[in-house]
Write a structure and sequence with these properties.
- With 261 residues, the protein is an alpha+beta fold.
- The protein has 7 helices and 11 strands.
- Strands 4-11-5-10-9-8-7-6 form an 8-stranded mixed beta sheet, with helices on both faces.
- The N terminus is likely disordered.
Length: 261
């Protein structure tokens, strides 16, 4: 199994392995419960986000007895009241893919993983942008309002934010009228800045607020010692991909989910 955080040549000199990025993203967005099966990990968070409610392999060489292991972890998901979902990254071995195919697990929701080398980069801060602890009600209220999160999901999100172990900041970019226009969450996961929950007010899109929030998030991670940055974005979100690429992110790989047909 590769060493977490080991560097290797990637697209446009990013120098991060897939495993290093995956490890940082798993650390940045926690789960309530986890189960390990060799290099496989199963995660549970009461159904909030597929990343925290799915299972995956972190080593392509650990693909033995894949059918039995998939069935075991799928049963674990069902027992805990969540849909059985496998997250397929480049770290899923050939026998894992074959077992999913044989069991009829259908692919859905492709995402792209983008990254960049932060060495030598500087990111300015424009307008009224503020930083908060992720559990601070001022950031939490802005985030849930812009993402239209409500009910039980709000309570689950509160729990997950309180479980983030690495240093993290919630960012709010305010409009000229003083209302929250965009939010983002930045986590410095072992020198890799991971960015999540990037959302812009639907009535204030295409006004640069998302860019301001991301520039501030990148600035904070650089100031706090991160050497790389990574972000995950659904492949159908063309506007977000365009923004991230304009900031300097480069696609590293893609992943998708599988579930029983």
């Amino acid at each position: 199994m590769a060493i977490i955080g080991a560097e290797a040549d990637g697209p446009d000199g990013v120098h991060l392995t897939t495993l290093a990025i995956e490890a940082a993203c798993l650390s940045a967005w926690p789960a309530v419960s986890t189960v390990h099966d060799g290099a496989w990990i199963w995660r549970f968070a009461h159904g909030y986000s597929k990343r925290s409610n799915s299972f995956q392999s972190l080593d392509p060489a650990d693909d033995g007895d894949a059918g039995r292991r998939i069935a075991y972890l799928a049963a674990l998901s069902a027992r805990n009241g969540i849909e059985p979902v496998f997250r397929v990254t480049p770290l899923a071995g050939a026998r894992v893919i074959a077992a999913l195919d044989q069991a009829g697990w259908a692919p859905f929701d492709e995402s792209r993983v983008l990254a960049m080398n932060l060495d030598g980069h500087g990111f300015g801060r424009e307008g009224d942008v503020r930083f908060f602890d992720p559990t601070d009600p001022r950031w939490f209220r802005a985030q849930t309002a812009l993402s239209a999160t409500s009910g039980r999901t709000v309570e689950i999100l509160k729990t997950l934010l309180g479980l983030i172990a690495p240093e993290a900041r919630g960012i709010v970019a305010y409009a000229q009228d003083g209302t929250p226009a965009a939010t983002a969450l930045a986590v410095n996961a072992g020198g890799i800045g991971v960015f999540l929950n990037v959302v812009t007010d639907k009535t204030k899109r295409r006004q640069g607020h998302g860019r301001r929030a991301m520039q501030a998030a990148l600035s904070w991670t650089v100031e706090n010692g991160a050497r790389h940055a990574a972000i995950q974005v659904t492949s159908d979100n063309a506007a977000a991909i365009q923004l991230y690429e304009a900031l300097g992110f480069v696609e590293q790989y893609r992943y998708h989910y599988r579930r029983p047909a």
